Amino acid sequence: MAKATGLARREFLLGAAGVLATPYIVTPAQAAGQTDERRLSFHNPHTNENFDAVYFSKGQYDEQAMREFYRIARDWRQEKEVKIDNRTINIAYNMQKLLEQSTPLMLVSGYRTPKTNRLVHGATHSFHMRGEALDITHPHVSTSMLHKVALRIRGGGVGYYPSEHFVHVDCGPVRTWRG
Ligand SMILES: [Zn+2]
């Protein structure tokens, strides 16, 4: 497990203390299945591809939309794609929802083959190699805000990379670190 740095830990405690204490909660309407549509939009700056689709509705994942997402989140260096974990896609969805931005999220890194992971100096057992991690940025939102939003969701791992302007999210154990 990555060691939480001072700042990352302070941010985390800040959240626990109340400023961002409320984790994302399903509203009664959503719980009743009235508005369960989950729409996600992403831009991949490496390939200049876009994803914008309702990937979940009426209690089901849309196969075609999911395949489109796997495609945009592929290892573009090696042209290989895998399934991206639903839980990680849902974390991205919740981030987009909390940010209330109509501009798409930007996908810095999705799936990585071991070869690409070595090339970018990823962690030895990176969740990116399992299709369980996404590195995300946004053209109109600070990395600090993206980080706060990701922590609030408590969906898994959250890595804060302020100098590289992105936040890593994965569906592994809840933990946080600063890159
Ligand atoms: Zn990452």
TrEMBL record:
Gene3D superfamilies: 3.30.1380.10. Pfam families: Peptidase_M15_2. SUPFAM superfamilies: Hedgehog/DD-peptidase (SSF55166). InterPro entries: MepK (IPR010275), TAT_signal (IPR006311), Zn_M74/Hedgehog-like (IPR009045). Pathway: Cell wall biogenesis; cell wall polysaccharide biosynthesis. Its cofactor is Zn(2+). Keywords: Cell wall biogenesis/degradation, Hydrolase, Metal-binding, Metalloprotease, Protease, Signal, Zinc. Belongs to the peptidase M15 family. PANTHER family: OUTER MEMBRANE PROTEIN (PTHR37425:SF1), PTHR37425. This is Murein endopeptidase K.
